[in-house]
Amino acid sequence: MAGTSKAVLITGCSSGIGRASALRLARAGQTVYATARRPESLHELAREGCRTLALDVTDEDSMRAAVASVEQAEGAVGVLINNAGYSQSGAIETVPMEAVRRQFETNVFGLVRLTQLVLPKMRAQRWGRIVNVGSMGGRLTFPGGGYYHATKHALEAISDALRFEVRGFGIDVVLLEPGLITTEFGEAASASIADVGDVGDDPYAHFNATVAAVTAGAYEGPMRRLGAGPERVARVIERAIARRHPPARITVTASAKLSIATRRLLSDRAWDAAMRGQFPQPG
Fold first, then answer.
1. Is it the case that residue 117 has pLDDT exceeding 80?
2. Catalytic residue numbers?
3. In which band, very low, low, confident or very high, does the pLDDT at 182 lie, cut at 50, 70 and 90?
4. Whole-structure pTM value
5. CA angle 181-182-186, nearest 5°?
6. Nearest to residue 114, comparing CAs of 68, 63, 71, 156?
7. Which residue from 228, 241, 217, 221 is spatially nearest to 178, judged by alpha carbons?
């Protein structure tokens, strides 16, 4: 393993899980490249020993430049933590296609392209870790979050396929499935309702407003007790990348474990009935 780079590249480090992970790993003595679209948001991480880079997962040149910087300094990206992402809420009919495309560009296509860019040098050194930050939302779907859930369902398939394809090169793929994480994520998800367009007399107005309220309530109300702070996910990431044989999937928080187990037990009809208890059904 002499000469093997274990340098860590993390996307979406301006807040939340990305920021917490960068801090934890840097404080543990690892070489961490913390990135964000706005590098000025990373000053605190730089003070803590992180090396900071601008990286926009929706921009090819930005991704290429960031990877090249790490490879020039370290030889390879040893650990890629694909964390950047957000939630676009709104009824399927009302979310404009440009917003749908932006959701997939950030949550799926950027993750895939960045993974493609780091893999050649990972394969060359015969060692690597790729951590995809998914969601319990990849295993179940709440009304009003169809597009976000679609991106997280996609990560389930991509991670499963990639894990098989790269294992022979000494590269492990880990998919995290966090539940409720108490960050600004919930506020952003609620605010994304403002991006939806009008459809005639807006038959989904009440539904969309309720989705925003329920989302905010989950992060502010009693459900918060079943969640955790971003530091919990950062700790899980640190342990996973240190293991000789990391698990393929890690479910994080009681809310995720409970929700996934409940969905597995319920039929589609029963799940829909449960959802009607939380959301007004349009019509």
1. yes
2. 148
3. confident
4. 0.92
5. 90
6. 63
7. 228
